[in-house]
Amino acid sequence: MNGHVLKNYDQELNKLRYRLVRMGSLVQQQIEMSVSSILNSNIELAKQVMELEEKVDKLDLKIDKQCIRIIALHQPVARDLRLILAALQIDIYFEIIGDYTTEMIDDVARTIFTSEIINKTKIKEMSEHVIKMIGKVLDSFVDENVNLALDILKIEEIVNILFKDNFNNLLSLMKADSSNIDSYAILLDVNRLLDLISKSAKTIAQELIYIYEPSISKHNDIEDLSIHDIFAEKTNE
Amino acid sequence: MKKTKIKTDKLNLFYGAKQALIDISMEIPEKRVTAFIGPSGCGKSTFLRSLNRMNDLIPGVKINGDVIIDDINIYDKNIDVVQLRKRIGMVFQKSNPFPKSIYDNIAYGPRVNGISGKSTLDEIVETSLIRAAIWDEVKDRLKSSAMGLSGGQQQRLCIARALAVNPDIILMDEPASALDPISTSKIEELIHELKTDYTIVIVTHNMQQAARVSDFTAFFYIGELIEMDKTTTIFTNPYNKKTEEYITGRFG
């Protein structure tokens, strides 16, 4: 789409996009680092997660203020309005994801995980999917690509299955192997937090769909639509 | 859905060889505010003026297609244009009171229509000024010249003058574009109140104004009607890319 007649309005919107992408990539780093920190008992990485958290919080405030400024000065409509509304939501969920990662490192170095214990679960596989989801969030946002946002909904279903598998598996392991109960309890918590991050990413994906293809979510709550319905609808357009 | 008050079907208008309106088909609902937006020269004012045959007076203008108001094609040969215009009030960008008293400005139309009783005229003047939300400001100086009123007051006086002949449609061509923000708000508030009794069509260059006052918005571009929908839809999720580009300020 062409630029605005008002150049400073364009600059404001571009700056907002840049800040959201920056916030998203910091959050993606936080997820990678917090999972690695907890599984490898790496306190240094945990500190870096906290440092990133400060940056994420600052960006959260800046994005809020910028959205308010754009609304007050430019009265955005249509696609621009949807971008601002979505940005305010996406910003909230990125910030929440950042909080989940700091919660994850609360128990860093409380116990040493052996690779044998980790490999009994699908935590690593789950974390890879979750990191991929945030990557797709960023790509979808930058490329204005609704299909990538729809991919995220698909991955969320996979993560949800992994979450349930891990949960059941860890409960069995706790019953059978009480000597490692601390490790399993922490993994149970990591499992829960990764699932919450995945759900937040799904909400962001829905916001992105709202920006780029509002007709998809307009007539129906997207929660009520299966992935197949959404793809069928896209194909029929 | 409200009843359709004005319906146009493939309306084309030519200024000499230049085509200014191309196949405009539109339904304007009764007792609602419909706004026309679009860049300069897109045909929105020309279209508005076609709705009460004001373009007839311009030399070299050719019109084909239908404009149907309450099931009557206003371009039929048998139509009495004077009677037609009695039903359609018009308010222009620049307020144009007659150089007469406030009272005479309002009473002018009814007098032309044969009303002469003082008490009837008094009542019409008062009701029209009340409806146009200017009565309290002028009731003590009805015999003063209308030219002494402020720009915003003059514009509301012109609206009162239009209401005095009891029309059912009011056409407004950028009615607030020459006014300050407070006077503009008063006109917008007035439009909002009048739509309970009148079908209002407004041309505006101010898109926020279209968003604030209208129920439906039509976007014109180079003589064509690109899109018409509920105002909320046009300003949140327009169907046509061109509409989106225009209302988000990407051209114009």
Description:
The complex is a heterodimer of chains A (237) and B (252). By secondary structure, chain A is mainly α. Chain A has one domain (7-236): Up-down Bundle (Methane Monooxygenase Hydroxylase, Chain G, domain 1). Chain A has helices spanning 7-40, 43-74, 78-104, 115-119, 123-143, 146-176, 181-212, 214-218, 227-236. In chain A, helix 5 (123-143) packs antiparallel against helix 6 (146-176) and helix 6 (146-176) runs antiparallel to helix 7 (181-212). Chain B has 252 residues and is α/β, with parallel strands linked by helices. Chain B has 10 helices and 10 strands. The mean pLDDT of chain B is 94. Chain B has a single domain (4-247), classed as Rossmann fold. Helix content of chain B is 36%, strand content 27%. Chain B is globular and about 55 Å long. Classes of the chains: A mainly alpha (237), B alpha/beta (252).
Helix-strand layout with pairing:
The complex is a heterodimer of chains A (237) and B (252).
Chain A (H helix, E strand, L loop, with lengths): L6 H34 L2 H32 L3 H27 L10 H5 L3 H21 L2 H31 L4 H32 L1 H5 L8 H10 L1
Chain B lengths: L3 E12 L2 E12 L3 E5 L6 H7 L10 E9 L2 E2 L7 H7 E4 L10 H11 L5 H14 L3 H4 L12 H13 L5 E5 L7 H14 L4 E5 L3 H7 L2 E6 L2 E7 H6 L4 H7 L5
Parallel strand pairs in B: 3-8, 3-9, 6-7, 7-8
Antiparallel strand pairs in B: 1-2, 1-4, 4-5, 9-10
Helix pairs in contact in B: 3-4, 3-6, 4-6, 6-7
Observed structural traits:
heterodimer; A: 237 residues; mainly alpha; Methane Monooxygenase Hydroxylase, Chain G, domain 1; elongated; B: 252 residues; alpha/beta; Rossmann fold; four-stranded antiparallel sheet; 10 strands; globular
**Compute the gyration radius of chain A: what is it?**
20 Å
Major sheet of chain B: 6 strands, mixed
Helicity level of chain B: 25-40%
Count of discrete alpha- or pi-helical segments spanning 4 or more residues of chain A = 9
**CATH fold-level topology of chain A:** Methane Monooxygenase Hydroxylase, Chain G, domain 1
Order of helices and strands of chain A: HHHHHHHHH
* Structural class estimated from helices and strands of chain B: alpha/beta
Oligomer: heterodimer
